[in-house]
Amino acid sequence: MSTAGGSNPEYVIARVRARRSALFGDEEYRKLVRMGPAEIARFMEESEYENEVNALGSRFSGVDLIEFALNQNLAKQFNDILDWAGGRLYDLIARYLRKFDAWNIKTIIRGIYSDTPRNEVEADLIRAGEFDDKLISRLLDASELEEIVDLLSGTIFGDGLEAAYEDYEEVGVLVPLENAVDRAFYEQLLEGLVVGEEAKQYREFLEAEIDFRNARNALRIARSGADLDPVDYFIEGGTLFRASEIAALATSPDELVSKIRDSRYGDRLSSALSDLEEADSLIGFERALDAALLEYGDSLGHVYPLSVTPIVSYILAKEREVDNIRAIARGREAGLDPDAIEEELVIL
Description:
By secondary structure, the chain is mainly α. The protein is 70% helix and 0% strand. It has 19 helices and no strands. Helix 11 runs antiparallel to helix 12 (175-190), helix 13 runs antiparallel to helix 17 and helix 15 (253-261) runs antiparallel to helix 16. The radius of gyration is 20 Å and the shape is globular.
């Protein structure tokens, strides 16, 4: 990746806002949840996904076609942003897009752990980070978790995964490995980030993302039944939680929501926090956290519109669109009721 040229936030943000306006909204989702997979693919063919659906239509059909088209479009959208960006702006965006390297690692790890067929794992990968196709193919070919650790030696994830593998062998759950991936990603995001006026809101957004990741991780650990201390898996860099209090909050979602409501996030997250309070399951709580982060990113983008924050906010919103369409397609294939599927979506 190159960072030649000067930063050009006005141009990139204008292009990103045009893309954002094309994202699906409530009306499109209401139509999609009442369609079968073939109808969803045809609907996508008349949208921003036209090129991908047409290119893949001769090789795939149904949910497979939808998923591969979604992931190809997602990667293209983000690679377009990198093509538009220059200088320091490029570097900030490229660093953030490594989240898809982290996503792909965790997806492959989960696939090996659950003995999921290779083709199903590959369908969930998003090739928008820095890993090239050769490395991704080698990761997909691995049959043991230790192979993954070896293959990633020398990447930003290598040292953390190597240290976490011993913990994984002791407890037999993926939390240590997944946490090591998340920690490596956030550490490289914050490393060397100079907080000038143009990056102040971006730093705030990253702190929020880490805070919400810590909340999610603590809740998952508390409900995993494994002999794990949430304090050991705390990710530094947020502002809302101290490591020493995260274990207690993990066992009391009401107190966790109160902590968020009384923080600097509270005023900007009124509707999202109501959803958090009403969530009656871990999955529902996690969806509400996703919505809260989306809402917070949008609010910061309006505070300083020429920072990288509006671009990152679009990246999150595009991810959610892809996740929503995938959830609809899989739900319809499984015969779920449209109203039940709608409850699974993250929509602002």
